[in-house]
Amino acid sequence: MEQQRNRRGVVTGVVGLVAGLLIAVSAPVAANHLNVKTSDLVNGAVTTPKLAKNAVKPGKIAKGAVRAPKIAAGAVRTGKLADGAVTTRKVAIGTDGVAQAGGQVIVQFANPVMTTSFNRFGAANPVVSTVGTGIYDVEIPGVSISGTAIYQVTPSFTIQLVNQVPTPLYNRHCTALPNQGKLRVRCWDNSGSAAHMGFTFLVVRR
Question: What does the pLDDT look like over 24-83, one tens digit per residue?
Fold first, then answer.
C-alpha cells in the first residue's frame, strides 16, 4: 500500500512538472527580452500596420529605394522641393508656360547669326536662314512647327546714329507664322518697310 502511494506521488509530481514546463513555454515573453534579427523575419512579415508613425526615417532608406512608382500622386509638393532641384531639363516637354526652344538672332549685312539658343525638343540647336529682306526661317531640329504652336518673336532693341546722336529705333515689329514645319519670321522698320533686323524668339509649345 505504501509503495502504491509513493508511485502515485511520483506520477503526480511528474505530471505537475510537465504541466509547469508547458505553461512556461506557452506563456508570452516580454518583447524587451527578445533579440529579433533580420534573418528571423520571413518575407512580407513586416507590413505597413506594423510600422509605428515616423518609424522609417531617411537614414533607414537605401539609396535609390524610393522610385517614381513608389511615390503617390501629389505626394511631392512645393515645400518638399529644395531650391534649384527642378531644372529646365526635368520639366516635361509641352508643360504650359515653359519655353521649349528659343534664341537670339543678329543680322550682319543681311546674314542672320544665331548668337544664343536652346532646344529641348532635340540635341541640335535652332538654325536660322534668310529668305528675303526682313524674312527669315527658323528651323528647330526635332520638331515640326504647326498651327497649334505657341511662339513669340520680338525685334532686338537697336540704336543708330542720327546726326551723330545715338537714337533708339522705335515702332519696329516682327511677326511669325508656321511655314513648312519651320517658324517664318517677318520684320518691318518704323516706316512699315520690310527690313533686316535682329530678333529673339521663343517656342512655348510645338
Answer: 444 454 555 567 777 777 887 788 788 888 778 777 787 777 777 778 777 777 777 777
Tell me whether residue 38 is in a domain.
no
Domain with 109, as residue range(s), is: 101-205
- Taking the C-alpha atoms of residue 158 and residue 77, their distance in angstroms, rounded to an integer, is 44
In degrees to the nearest 10, what's the CA dihedral of 79, 82, 85, 88?
50
Nearest-CA neighbor of 158 among 143, 172, 145, 148?
172
Please tell me what DSSP assigns to residue 47.
-
Q: Using one digit for the tens of pLDDT, what is the confidence trace for 150-203?
A: 889 999 866 555 566 665 666 789 999 999 999 999 999 888 999 899 999 998
The tally of domains found in the chain comes to: 1
Asked whether residue 129 is domain-assigned, the answer is yes
Closest CA to 200 of 139, 142, 147, 157: 157
Is residue 57 one of the residues assigned to a domain? no
pTM of the predicted model as reported, rounded to 2 decimal places: 0.55
Name the DSSP letter for residue 126.
Answer: P
Residue 101: how many CB atoms within 10 A of its CB?
26
